[in-house]
């Protein structure tokens, strides 16, 4: 069944069936406030400041219930329905939901009444703005009541037990506002207050949730809405709602618009200022129009045209938009170190200045001894065990630095000075070197990197908790970082560092091959007790894909050796939605390994398709020249309507071993490091725009069944218009002139010309 389609040149996705396989969410945000909204108005809304203080206005990240409702009541027939059909279960005459870049619009019709609901988050304020338009096209006058309802919780991690005993809410008819407070002592100095304002005076209201819901305690058909009148209840030490009633008398052809502004504030004065900014339709419409233009502009001018229309829409629009979300919010409830740096590497392609700021932010949270935390903006220390030592964090600094340098060609960025989190300051270059030294000096008895409380995989939290366990993948990641920094050192002319990196690389490579190899693949780690994780003798977790893919990315093995490993590994791990992270999955808890063994099989990196790990494998397949295999996996992990939102890269897919009925689908949309790697895999590898410090090498790696591709890429101020086709011999024309090789020198300041045309022909001798 088709549930929707891209419209407006891919800038919007229109859902025409309110019951897709699961809720399909849009993310609306600014750096302070994030709202998730699905096709039935479900989702969540939250505020978080740079210190990690978090306030949920309503909903929770993984709560699928709807916190927003728009009810309609025909006061002549007593019929009740909702703009989102799931709320009341009443069948509508017509329905659609359009998710756009920064806004969502629901449209529905029932009994001659057309309702349009629009929601967006303004650029700066911590809140969301609703607009409800009610249009009478029934051919006769109508008496309609509109009820706008939200579940207000004002929850957050800084609250003491029993916080609900400290909340209250009251109305202010003069200001056309409801005001909500959480007066818990632990949050009195933070933004744990909220308001609802409407530009059309309300007829009735409710703040007490129990009074609003009545005896049936259900949002499906609250008694007061069925009867046609809210109760005018304030609230104290009880659960709250924001419920407003507007009674409308509409002649045939008449329309009434009601705007509702909801926000998280510190006090009433801040609510006054917020309200003044969006006091009427003109101000609201102007803000949304600015947001639309801003979000389109943030996509940049790069554009690709391949034989796959969905692929084009994803990478021309939605992947870039999602990457900006990751840049602003990382993984929503915290900003992880590895997350920020990997996101920065991808952001470099569309906004290198922003990527540099992200790198600097991460470096500000590095200690002067080179140590890097798991996360630096957290809502609590329990989130991702942020106070624990995760070994991989320092290794990602070079990953981001390298991508930014290759995009800009600006070596002077390495001389920028950034403070450490504890004391002192240093250049970006020395931050990189401190990270490498820290990793190099944090090794165990086999000369491999210690894994501590985990590496990239947070759930490997017991492997090295006692300080003895060593990571094979972690050692390969260190080897990769050494190669990257060696190359940067060569660019700088720093032969001392380049030589040191080369020597260290050869030493750890030898240790990886000696202690990390097990007959036909690389193991994952050694535990504190000296037991191997991911070897052939293991009954569970016998193979992990990350050490195999990173071995070729780091040059530990060549393409031929990688091909041999894949003959063993791929039949074990491949599924219709990509390769599983490990196989067989763990079904019994192993205290030597930790949390991954206690996770139900088929979920959360335990035998599921973790798209981030799959993106590493895609990069490895491209590095090994396995172009068709790389693209096959690429397509499998990309979103499509049978497994996820078709317009947003999910974090993972449920694996084939899961006990649940629905497998090969995603429960975890939008928040993922995969999207940054998708951008790198698309532009650097698939399209073959391979950036170097001195310019770019054009080396497309399109699948064998694509014969024609074109794309536009902005690089150092010059627009590259590139076409790719197949022919007898490989050749490249630059502005119509044949070039003997496929490298184009581009200085830091770009080319003298604003545009350049490249025609690349893939010869028959080029393998796939």
Automatic annotation (TrEMBL):
The keyword Glycosyltransferase applies. Residues 12-279 form the Glycosyl hydrolase 94 supersandwich domain. The keyword Transferase applies. Keywords: Glycosyltransferase, Transferase. Coiled coil: none annotated. InterPro entries: 6-hairpin_glycosidase_sf (IPR008928), 6hp_glycosidase-like_sf (IPR012341), Gal_mutarotase_sf_dom (IPR011013), GH65_N (IPR037018), GH94_catalytic (IPR033432), GH94_Enzymes (IPR052047), Glyco_hydrolase_94_b-supersand (IPR010383). It comes from the Bacteria. Residues 302-688 form the Glycosyl hydrolase 94 catalytic domain. Pfam families: GH94_b-supersand (PF06165), Glyco_hydro_94 (PF17167). This is N,N'-diacetylchitobiose phosphorylase. It comes from Winogradskyella damuponensis.
